[in-house]
């Protein structure tokens, strides 16, 4: 069971589309019977976008060349069988993610919704009335219940949904890219390693560093629960290695972390090899642990005709993660 909040709650479809500033990609999965039910990536496609055609933003319009983006959305959907219903992955920077904790949680959904919206309204860079606010329960501890809250401008999400709709596909499930990558990692992790919904002793902490062409996100998880999330644009002062260092310090000082059982670096294909190598070295030196990459094939097999390389893994990881959200995938 995924613990991550999508911008719209719905059961997962069998096709997913990711729209980023650099490309549009899509994939489909089939479920094949055997000794254990198994997810298989049956088709995939990716098409590059011209610079400036789409510029992700939390507050402003994202699509600047609609015709160009529409061509690529239509093309990738044709390659994967023209699905009528898709899951949609959007860039992290179109959503503001917060972690909030309440000592007591209202039993009624309406009261809980109001409490969450009240808590995040001051951090919203636009009127809360313009926001799509969703949340899901995170870590539960003696100190209270934590929630992971996603806040996005409704008009921005509608831009992305509108692209899919014009191409003939309804986007019934929307999530951000890093949450989808986390779901891909969890789908390929055993139940024992993943932990449970409660803060049980011995549940391992792990770190995900997800780099995209124009932003980077870092998430710290305790078992399946996000306990820290930070995102920043690529043109922000300081290097990605600096951000990793600051996060590690915060983890040790404020979260009283005892060390990461696992560190995963995802999305390296979107940055220069020198930048990625620098981040990998910094992670290894700072955290004194081996750096893993996302193993998509631990959660979903690939059809025989699909060749696997680093760039393909980076493309498939969020797509597979969204498609396996709230599903039982055999590892």
CATH architecture of the largest domain: 2-Layer Sandwich
Percent of residues in helices comes to 25-40%
Cα-to-Cα separation, first versus last residue = 14 Å
Regions with little confidence, pLDDT below 50 for 5+ residues: 1-5, 195-199
Within the CATH hierarchy, at the fold level, what is the topology of the largest domain? Nucleotidyltransferase, domain 5
Shape: globular
> How many helix segments?
8
**Mean model confidence by pLDDT:** 86
The topology string of helices and strands comes to EEEHEEHEEHEHHEEEHEHEEH
What is the number of beta strands?
14
Structural class: alpha/beta
Which superfamily, in CATH terms, is the homologous superfamily of the largest domain? ATPase, nucleotide binding domain
What is the class of the largest domain in the CATH system? Alpha Beta
The strands making up the biggest β-sheet line up spatially as: 8-4-1-2-3-14
Strand content: 25-35%
Question: How does this structure look, described?
Answer:
The chain has 331 residues and is an alpha/beta fold. It contains eight helices and 14 strands. The chain has helices spanning 66-79, 109-120, 154-166, 177-187, 191-194, 240-253, 273-287, 310-323, and strands spanning 15-19, 23-32, 38-48, 85-90, 95-102, 131-141, 144-153, 170-176, 205-211, 215-222, 225-233, 260-266, 291-292, 301-302. The strands form three sheets. A six-stranded mixed β-sheet has the order 8-4-1-2-3-14, with helices on both faces. Helix 4 (177-187) crosses helix 8 (310-323) and helix 6 (240-253) runs parallel beside helix 7.
